[in-house]
Amino acid sequence: MTFEHLFVTLSAEQMYATGYGIHPLRSARRIRPAGRLVAVMLLALSVSLGLALVAHGGTAAQDATVVVQPGDTLWSIAAQRYPSDDVRSRVGDIERANGLQSPVIEAGEILRLPS
């Protein structure tokens, strides 16, 4: 046996040592079938909630704003902005959204209009 043959044999054995240090990729702890079921159900729930958010537009709608023009009243703004709703309740919504103590507004004010 020559020195070169010995070197090649040793390096090949070290590189491709079969059976030593090779373990299957498994966890030491086994997951019970009930635990797997719970994990799958949680995953399905989170995916369906995510899809529901995407389907309904994601986040809540932001309040719109309007600049009060001369001659505008809360009633006229509410009637224009919410034509199919009860104007009285919408005037109250606008008052609450802006912290108004009375329905008196002035030209140039910026009012938040709840969605």
Descriptive notes:
It is a single chain. A two-stranded antiparallel ribbon has the order 1-2. Helix 3 (74-81) crosses helix 4 (87-98). The radius of gyration is 35 Å and the shape is rod-shaped. It has a domain at 64-113: LysM domain (Membrane-bound Lytic Murein Transglycosylase D, Chain A, Roll). It has 115 residues and is mainly alpha-helical. The chain has four helices and two strands, in the order ααβααβ. The N and C termini lie far apart (89 Å). It has helices spanning 3-15, 33-55, 74-81, 87-98, and strands spanning 64-67, 110-113.
Give a brief description.
With 115 residues, the chain is mostly helical. It contains four helices and two strands; from the N terminus they run H-H-E-H-H-E.
Name a few traits of the molecule.
Membrane-bound Lytic Murein Transglycosylase D, Chain A; 115 residues; mainly alpha; 2 strands; single chain; two-stranded antiparallel ribbon
Terminal Cα separation, in Å?
A: 89 Å
CATH architecture of the domain at 64-113: Roll
* Mean pLDDT over the full residue set: 80
Shape, please?
rod-shaped
The CATH homologous superfamily of the domain at 64-113 is termed: LysM domain
Main CATH class of the domain at 64-113: Alpha Beta
What structural class do the secondary elements suggest?
mainly alpha
Compute the number of helices. 4
Instruction: Kindly estimate the percentage of residues that lie in beta strands according to DSSP.
Output: 5-15%
Largest sheet: 2 strands, antiparallel
Order of strands, widest sheet: 1-2
> Residue ranges: pLDDT <50 for 5 or more in a row?
none
Helix content: 40-55%
Order of helices and strands: HHEHHE
